[in-house]
């Protein structure tokens, strides 16, 4: 029998509900108005309808006769991004699945889908976070045609799923199902990939060896298999009940993948016209709390310390880092997936995957069972594992024990008793520390700092031997308003090398690290950011900085008040960055979600 809900989770949930009372009520009232004003297509101008039906070819007669619900597909397909390459053929199949149940489907619109892996360390990465706002706006444009009775969102990766969630929530009076395409098969061992990266950082192997290693990891269509932001997104969609249960990590091109895609379309047709499982009803305070719980329990991407507050705001829910830190104190770490463990998401799924995680959390009273989901029931449906029966219909089965105790453990016997996402704060601001990825003996670092304004400068200092000591590396002017808050993955190999040489090393930055947050202790997303006079802009080389995940401290002994802040020396020009100036200038802080769009909308 399951335990009652953990007291800390209950208290945090009630705090979020109370804090969000006015904004959530306003959102639900808006969705009620939107539902009431949604046009009856039989009363819409014939000219309008003719435009909408003209490209429907095989479905024109069904649309004209209003025979059944019409599903709007919002797709983030491109074939540069491996995770989204499988979506190329989805619309034609989804239209067939819709016809099977008397419905129709149309591609409502497309969203951009940039690959953070491709832009990592390049100027284009400075567009990445704000692509989430663009994706949300694109989703709104797609659905603004008022032709749809339900929404299928096709997206997987980093900013794409949060952007789709935010956009779809503005049409929250409709049901919405998220349809993933699954991870690529496992490539070379993750430890081998990490070893080659560090050898390259030390100059011991060349580009040819590095490229061969990387292509052994990222080798075919499907999501990258490490547990970064993309796969953390899929975890969250399960925890929030927005997938067909068990969909997250079924590989592309398999019969089960196709059966789950088919079920998603059929389920959307069933939900159309209902009022109890709309997007607005599904994404409430408890669903947001569940997303955070899943992030903590699985050691997911630190990017979601930004995305969860942003998605919450779009649903009228106010969630902050105090809530995340409080939940972390109660939610144990039950999964170790690379880069926090040896195996990747395919091994994770084979060991029991999200079904096992959700089941053990529910058993221990560590997640909200009673949320509205797109399945027939509540979150309990997501504690099962999908498979194919004799007639190739989906059957959901009990999972049983973990298939790999080095990767998945019950919440009653976890890897560590807390979720490993800690709030650190002090006279340098507030930041996030992913303790689940860092050995406990490294949770406290106090050393003189070395201050940089970009990643290449850190790499140059490393190669020159200037960092061969105990050091806190500060990389500033990396926040949303400065340069769009890029991920700083190029810092990981050199800092890891320094740590392996025996030095006590830490990173402090107002930028992001995401799912690649690794073995080096780091305070990331530091807010207020350096641009505009944040404390990091007053630090100088040699100031002693203390970062401690045990006490939650992020501080310096330097007299910051006596100094003028340094100005950001760079201009964001090139690769189209100048066109994003409006988004940078209007962005709010990382803890609020780093969004110009939500700030401007007053959400």
Q: Count of helices?
A: 23
Rg from alpha-carbon coordinates: 24 Å
Total number of distinct structural domains: 2
Give the number of DSSP strands. Answer: 14
| Average pLDDT over all residues | 93
Strand content: 5-15%
Protein name: Phosphogluconate dehydratase
Cofactor: [4Fe-4S] cluster
Function: Catalyzes the dehydration of 6-phospho-D-gluconate to 2-dehydro-3-deoxy-6-phospho-D-gluconate.
Pfam family, one: ILVD_EDD_N
Task: Summarize the structure in words.
InterPro entries: 6-phosphgluc_deHydtase, Dihydro-acid_dehy_C, DiOHA_6PGluconate_deHydtase_CS, ILV_EDD_C, ILV_EDD_N, IlvD/EDD_N. One of its GO terms (molecular function) is 4 iron, 4 sulfur cluster binding. Pathway: Carbohydrate metabolism; Entner-Doudoroff pathway. It is an enzyme of class 4 (lyase). With 603 residues, the protein is α/β, with parallel strands linked by helices. Helices cover 37% and strands 12% of the residues. The protein folds into 2 domains: 327 residues, no CATH class; 150 residues, IlvD/EDD C-terminal domain-like (Glucose Oxidase, domain 1), CATH 3.50.30. An 8-stranded mixed β-sheet has the order 7-8-12-11-10-9-13-14.
């Amino acid at each position: 029998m399951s335990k009652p809900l953990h007291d800390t989770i209950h208290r945090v949930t009630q705090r979020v509900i109370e804090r969000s009372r006015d904004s959530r009520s306003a959102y639900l009232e808006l969705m009620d108005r939107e539902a009431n004003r949604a046009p009856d297509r039989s009363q819409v101008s014939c000219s309008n309808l003719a435009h909408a039906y003209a490209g429907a070819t095989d479905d024109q007669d069904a649309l004209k006769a209003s025979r059944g619900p019409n599903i709007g597909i919002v797709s983030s397909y491109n074939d540069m991004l491996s995770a989204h390459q499988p979506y190329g053929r989805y619309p034609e199949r989804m239209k067939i699945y819709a016809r099977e149940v008397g419905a129709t489907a149309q591609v409502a619109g497309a969203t951009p889908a940039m690959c953070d892996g491709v832009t990592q360390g390049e100027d284009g990465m400075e567009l990445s976070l704000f692509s989430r706002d663009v994706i949300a706006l694109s989703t709104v444009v797609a659905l603004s045609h008022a032709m749809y009775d339900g929404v299928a969102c096709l997206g997987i990766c980093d900013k794409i799923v949060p952007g789709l969630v935010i956009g779809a929530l503005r049409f929250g009076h409709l049901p919405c199902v998220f349809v993933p395409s699954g991870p690529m098969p496992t490539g070379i061992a993750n430890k081998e990939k990490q070893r080659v990266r560090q050898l390259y950082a030390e100059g011991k192997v060349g580009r040819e060896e590095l490229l061969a290693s990387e292509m052994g990891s990222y080798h075919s269509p499907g999501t990258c298999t490490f547990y970064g932001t993309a796969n953390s997104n899929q975890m969250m969609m399960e925890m929030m009940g927005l997938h067909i249960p068990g969909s997250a990590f079924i590989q592309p091109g398999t019969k089960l993948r196709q059966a789950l895609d088919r079920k998603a379309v059929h389920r959307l047709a069933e939900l159309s016209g209902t009022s109890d499982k709309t997007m607005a009803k599904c994404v409430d305070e408890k669903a947001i709390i569940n997303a955070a719980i899943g992030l903590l329990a699985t050691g997911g991407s630190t990017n979601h310390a930004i995305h969860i507050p942003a998605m919450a705001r779009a649903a009228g829910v106010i969630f902050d880092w105090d809530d995340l830190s409080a939940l972390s104190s109660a939610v144990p770490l039950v999964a170790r997936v690379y880069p926090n463990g040896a195996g990747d998401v395919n091994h994770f799924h084979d060991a029991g995957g999200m079904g096992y995680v959700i089941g053990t959390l529910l058993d221990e009273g560590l997640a909200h069972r009673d949320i509205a989901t797109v399945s027939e029931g509540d979150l309990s449906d997501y504690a099962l594992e999908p498979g194919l029966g004799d007639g190739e219909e989906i059957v959901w089965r009990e999972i049983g024990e973990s298939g790999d105790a080095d990767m998945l453990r019950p919440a009653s016997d976890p890897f560590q008793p807390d979720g490993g996402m800690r709030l650190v704060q002090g006279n340098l601001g507030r930041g996030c520390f992913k303790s689940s990825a860092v050995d406990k003996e490294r949770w406290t670092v106090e050393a003189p700092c070395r201050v940089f304004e970009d990643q290449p400068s850190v790499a140059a200092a490393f190669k020159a031997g200037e960092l061969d000591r105990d050091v806190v590396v500060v990389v500033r002017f990396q926040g949303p308003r400065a340069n769009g808050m890029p991920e700083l993955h190029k810092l990981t190999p050199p800092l890891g090398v320094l740590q392996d040489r025996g030095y006590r090393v830490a990173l402090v930055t107002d930028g992001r690290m995401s799912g690649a947050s690794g073995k080096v202790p780091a305070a990331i997303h530091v807010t207020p950011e350096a641009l505009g006079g944040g404390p990091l802009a007053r630090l100088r080389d040699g100031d002693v900085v203390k970062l401690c995940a045990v006490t939650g401290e992020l501080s310096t002994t330097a007299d910051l008040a006596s100094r003028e802040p340094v100005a950001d020396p760079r201009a964001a020009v090139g690769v189209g960055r100048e066109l994003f100036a409006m988004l940078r200038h209007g962005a709010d802080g990382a803890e609020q979600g780093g969004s110009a769009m939500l700030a401007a909308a007053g959400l």
